[in-house]
Amino acid sequence: MLKHLAAAMAVIAIVSPAFAQEAALARGKIIDATTGKPVPGATVFNKDTGESAITDDGGNFEFLTSEGPANLVVIDPSYKKTEARYDGKSAVTITLEPVSVRGEEIVVEAERERTTAGETTMRREEIARIPGSRGDALSAVKNLPGVANTQGFGPNAGLVIRGSSPADSRIFVDGFEIPILYHLGGIQSVLPTEMIDDLVYTPGAFGVELGRASAGTIQVASRRGARELAGFAEVSFINAATMLQGPLGKKGSFAFAARRSYIDALIPLVVSDDSLSFTALPRYYDYQARFDYELTKHLRLSAFLFGSDDVFAVETNEQDPDEPSRFKNTTRFTRAIAAVTYDRPGVYNKLAVSALTQRVGFELGDDRFLRINPDSFAARDDARIQLTKHVALIAGGEAEAREVGVRVKLPRPPKEGDPTEPNLTNDPLIDVDSTESGEHLAAWTAIELQPTSRIKTTAGVRVDNFRRNDVTVVQPRVQARLKIDKAMSVLAAGGLYTRPPDNQDENLQTSLKPERAWQTSLGLENKIGQGITMTTTIYYNDRSHLITAAGARDEPMREDGTNTYSNDGTGRSYGAELLLQARSDKFFGWAAYTYARSERQDNEMAAERLFDSDQTHNLVILGSYKFGEDDKWQIGGRFQLTSGTPYTPVIGAVFNSDINNYSAEFGRINSQRNPAQHQVDIRIDRAFTFKDWKLSGYLDVANVYLNAPTLGYEYNRNYTERTETKGIPILPSLGLRGEF
Q1: CA distances (Å), 149 to each of 136, 451, 641, in order?
Q2: What is the CA 49 to chain-centroid distance, rounded?
Q3: DSSP conformation class of 605
Q4: Contact between 237 and 735 (Cβ < 8 Å)
Q5: If the chain, 740 residues long, is cut into consecutive pieces of 10 residues, what is the mean pLDDT of each piece?
Q6: What is the pLDDT at residue 282?
């Protein structure tokens, strides 16, 4: 890999004199079209190359870009998106038209240049209107190539990227990991779309700045508050939400938001204790607060606090001695981030610190439980320096200290590929009460070369040190982009990526090493016409050190944990992805197709098999159209067709007299598939604009024709009959929002 990196850099160094262009300082001023006053805090970027800047208190901006004319785009939450032509010589003045209602959501996502094949940015305006996603940003990501369509419960439910386990991918908010992705296993993400300014999805082969992920990443940037007072209140079938944002003195801003579900209040109104054998009372809430302050033209402070709290409990009325009568899952976290950012033409540096507290509880009956309490403090620094006209240095580092308390009294949970369910009565228990501490250190550096506007490459290395096991991993990575012409570009990327073991696995087997993946991808991006773009990507990932079960679950755990888990697994993932996007003033939509294959071998003696999350085919077609007076109506639809997930078939059963029950006999692991799944979602929006405020209503229905997916099978006592376990058949959401 290092030999190939050196060769690529040498070739670029040879050809660069022939293509070299001069750099220039693009500068200008942004003003309000109605008042003539400067607009501070607006984002200005070069639509062709991606360089950007934020206007100061006087509305001024400047940034280095290629010499010559450029197409500039200006974005601010309180104004309409504006494009202007910069002649490459004189300072430009750009006027912005205010939106009709303060706080209205406009496009806030810069159309940045992709750095790796498959990378996709999403617009907040479009996220809020995608059918079936209920306006939720991290649910909308599931419509992109490489993301599997899944239903299930867990902290990372649904985020299966290129066939990998959900634990292989990471979601970063302002540079720090978010520990829980969804409320109640997938109903809603823990971060509302209104608090998101920027979302970048990268299915693989990302840069050196990110780590601890062996599959893909999602980078979320929280949203700064507007400089004018604005807000909204919303009610829907699922929850109630509110947000307030506005100025903080002359140089600052604030934003507050909160949501609370009321499913727990609705269920007792429609379900009596006698009508069902159990009563479920799930509930969640989340909260966010952000503050920003401009110290100088180039120096700003920011702070972001967010968290969530989920409870899901089931009390059964039936008396079954073999089944627990009570189930409860509690998940809560709070993360605080503070950052200072220095940003001027040619120099960027962001220093941030963060504290995280998290509580996870899982209870079955009165004496079976899992409690994990990870707390951590982290710091990271990101820097970028433009060394010359054609060379930039990227560097940074991060450090995290954590303490994890684990209390477990449960049978060992099934691992990847294990079809058997734990026997709560007869399986040996893992009985652990421990508190472990550890540190994670990382540093990275990369050189970005752009000898011409057509060639751009970034080559670097990331070093991660997991101090608990004293494991250091050196990870070379490279990304390259070649513009063939104005409409077509080729992208290539590759490198080594690692992720550490989960907390609970590491506490049982302290000698576990990080999992590894060598990733490569090649893509073609083609602008077919006005507002139409097609991207195709092929990829191959070679995996090693995969964590797998080291012994039978009914075998008592040794003191050193060596018969629990090991790093003996290997695997590979490969596939192709296609994304066809279309955008205009009234319409947006895309068609996304993924062919993916994920295979693994648990040890040298085991047969090769599919990953549990393998989904060979996934097709998504969606679109949304504005119409009527002032585009106050919007209607959209979505169709999805996917392969079923694999499962291990039951081929027989044996009666076990010791436990007076039957034990299943299984066929080849993951050798059969659940039925293919297809569904249609619709969404209708209607806006009513008044003098000083706006009222909007929406109807969002997922799976309109009630085609519930098959998630698995339940068997009778002797395994002679089975019934399908179904997912949610339909999920309607009707909501009203008032904005000012």
Answers
A1: 16, 41, 9
A2: 25
A3: T
A4: yes
A5: 39 34 76 82 82 84 81 82 86 81 35 77 80 87 90 58 92 94 85 91 96 95 92 94 95 96 75 52 92 94 97 68 71 97 94 97 85 96 96 98 91 86 80 89 98 94 91 97 93 97 77 95 92 95 93 70 84 97 92 97 94 95 94 96 95 89 93 96 95 94 93 92 89 93
A6: 83
* pLDDT, position 585: 84
Instruction: Report the DSSP pairing between strands 23-32 and 92-96.
Output: parallel
**Would you say the C-alpha torsion 157, 162, 168, 174 has a positive or negative sign?**
negative
What is the layout of strands, in order, in the sheet containing 196-202? 120-122, 196-202, 217-222, 170-173, 176-177
Q: What is the distance between the alpha carbons of residues 193 and 171, in angstroms, rounded to a whole number? A: 15
Q: C-alpha angle with apex 87: 83 to 88, nearest 5 degrees?
A: 115
Nearest to 203 by CA among 121, 118, 137, 142: 118
Tokens of 10: 């040498």
This prediction's pTM? 0.84
pLDDT of residue 705: 95
Q: Rounded to whole angstroms, what are the CA distances from 31 to 43, 246, 625?
A: 13, 19, 31
Amino acid present at 85: R
Tokens 């082969």 map to which residue? 205
Query: In 488-643, where does DSSP find H-type helix?
Result: 503-508
The DSSP H or E segment spanning 569 is: strand 565-583
Percentages helix, strand, coil for the chain (3-state, rounded to 5) are 5, 55, 35
Domains of the chain, residue spans: 25-98, 137-739
For domain 137-739, give the CATH number.
Answer: 2.40.170.20
Q: What is the DSSP string of 667-690?
A: -STT-EEPPPEEEEEEEEEEEEE-
The domain 25-98 is placed in CATH, from the list 2.60.40.1120, 3.40.50.880, 3.30.530.20, 3.90.230.10, at 2.60.40.1120
Structure tokens at 592: 């996304």
User: Where is 263: in which H helix or E strand?
Assistant: helix 263-270
